[in-house]
Amino acid sequence: MRFALPERLSLQKIVQLVLGLLLAVIVLVSSMKTINTGNFSGSQWRSLVVSGIALGSMYALIAMGYTLVYGILFIINFAHGEVFMAGGYTAFFVARAFSDSGFLAENPIMSLIVVFAVGMLVSMLIAITLERVAYRRLRGAPRLVPLITAVGASLFLQNTFRGLYGAQVRAYPEVEMLSGSVSIFGMPVGKLSLLTILLAAVLMFTLFTFITKTKTGRAMRAVGEDKEIASLMGIDVDRTIVRTFAIGGLLAGAAGVLWGLIFQVGFFMGFFPGIKAFTAAVLGGIGNVVGAGLGGLTLGVLESVAPNLLLTGWDVPSPNQLTDVIAFTVLVFVLIFKPGGILGSDEAEKV
Amino acid sequence: MDKKKISLPRLALKFGLIAGVAIVYCAVVGMTDRFTGRTIVNEVISLGDFLFVAFALVAGYAVAKPRALPGDLVPDRARPPAVAYGALAGVIAGLVTALFLVIANSVNLRLVLISVTETLIDKMSYGGSVGSALVYMTLGGALLGAVGASLWLLRERARNTLMIAFVTTIVFSLGEPLLRPILTTLLLKVRLTTTWLFFGGGLSRVGAVVVFVTTALIYYFWKQRGGEVRGRMQELPEAQRKGIRIAAIVLLIAFLLYLPNLLTSFLAEVLGTVGLYIILGLGLNIVIGYAGLLDLGYVAFLAVGSYTTAILISTRHPWGLEWSYWMSIPITILVAIVIGIMIGAPVLRLRGDYLAIVTLGFGEIARIIVISDWARPVLGGAQGILGIRAPAIGDLEIRDPEKLYYAILICVLLVAFISIRLAASRVGRAWNAMREDEQVAEAMGISIIGYKLLAFATGAALGSISGIFFAIKLGSVFSNSFNIIVSINVLALIILGGMGSIPGVIAGAFVLVGLPDLLREFADFRLLIYGAILVALMLFKPEGLIPSKRRKRELHERESEEEQYEERAGGGGTEPVISTS
Fold it and tell me: How far apart (Å, rounded) are the C-alpha atoms in residues B420 and B521?
């Protein structure tokens, strides 16, 4: 080979380039227009960003489950949103019982710990059961099969919890310790947002250390690389996969309780966060733990800021109704421009 | 298969526990309570009791099912001790249920589990005390488990006859809302009534016996003589066989044309809905079954079809286009195709999983945009678009359910015909090749992206046709008709029938769309049951209930390869056995 020819600019690349430029122009013009209207003050933007980070932390926690399972089994665990719901919804009853008995007011820290523990354990149990009942038999099946199973499992879980706990939407009892806000660098930050961000950061850091430093973490990565060889090296593949699901479940359960404390719980609460967390995982590069964290935060902030920033300038009525469109649009654009995600390789696997 | 040694006590414990958990599950999600209201056989058994009966029977059946030891053939029948273990499984199932009743009776679970009410406990213990329920459940479980297991003591033909007759009786009873009016009209012509057959929402006692015995006799006779009939058919010359087949199709079509005369207009409407779902199913079948692309946002095309039609036709839309139907239909289909390509183009070069999520996202985007204030001036927001005229051919307005039924029927036949021809065409073969192995297909010169887009566009076009009818049927278009549930519904009916199988789609639509409309008891648990069906089918029968031949082969490829391998390995060992994995 004498010298490498510069790669021919393919039609696909040209289309991507044009689309990218167009997108950039639209974003710029829309932002300018919105800022010129002066509808939002600087502190309003800042608080939007903070709530976006809190939202993004929860997406990131859920996204870990997607990315871990994908990294090891190469299936999209579509029912992961329901794992998140199961924990958040079940822990609600514990929180309500504590609130009714006065324990919550007496000893808020202890009761919050118990509530989180219940939520995380329930989610973990659901995740493990899911793996055992639905996915284990399907290893090596044509790729459409586990995906459809996951859709079915998602429906099944959603409606099971609807049957168990009822169809109404419920709100967690008020935790006095978490209401109000603290001032950080002169900026008021809601205590609940702060708790969310801190807890998510701690959990994700623990996960990262776990995966990189411990034996189980290494086993997980090995199984993700090649199951057969991993099992030859003395790794119990089944157990490793169960652990992966368990960890994903624990994090999703924590996110579920946080979600309940900030918003509300109900049997349908897992659907949108589930899809968005998946988007976050793709955004960061699916299979990549750090990427899922980054992707979650990016998506959260985008969702919180973008509708107001991009749409207000065009006089779109009630832009926040279109929040969910943002997430999916982001997903589509990521897949067009950088299918491997922020931290992934450039080419998404074909196959 | 199973490496662990198979021991009957262990199986009894396993299946007994599974059955028990399933029974309790049905109770706590509220199925049992809801189902006791429906009779299966008058004064003998209700649908709620049937849950217990069915699970206990199946547990016994599963325990006694003969399993081959390595190297042996699967025995046809079980040995008598299996019955005792079947009974044991039933007892375990009964004990689990009774345990649940004891707990529910002593602890107030209703605070958390909303379905565990006093009435439920009453119903499950048949009005008696919980202690008496314990006795019933254990004894009943033992009896049912033993019955289920003893099926395996019979010869295959007798066993199948009994099972088919049993299932048919249940189906007859559940199909009462549909079958009763049809049979009443039919039997009236020969001066008979159906009052002896049905009672309330199910069969009468006499009716149950009659249905059971008749089915058993018919099936038994067919098993004995069916082979002969089929053999004689095979011997006929090709032309005659073709003639018989065409005659059968003509008869079927004649029956379908005559059907509305037998039905109430409510049933005609249900049939119309089933027809719409058949069109949707056939459309999605091209995308999923033929081309192997999982589209979870298929409802978007239904919405595109409905809304485009509504905008073009409606007399009350601000744009005031008021086109004629003949002009609007091609434009609607064209719009759907363009949107299909727009959605498909960015993601079709990626892995199939991404496509699933992105299409799901697009389905939701469609819904969100439709209900948003932003699109209200065009799409009407939550109020929807009203004033959609009925299409007219000359003076004939197609609006009432019967006429719409005919219109939909014609469309279904047309779409089915297109589907069948497509499957056999060059395009269909290209899709098949692509689904089975993209890289190999590409190497064979098939343009992957082109064919994927073609599949997507065809699916979109068929979906929009269904949308047109949807708009006509309601006379208006509302945003809340287009949610994810429609997509899931269509997916479920394809999977149930079998991906890529046209009879499968039609049967699936009847079961999953027609039945819940008729059985209101199921309405609340519709999605739950869909979910369970999807998972169970993927685990145990991924090719569906009426599989297309090719698909079946594909999904069992590995097993048949293993079989061949074993045959070869067992066949004297003259050939070198090379492990290829």
Answer: 36
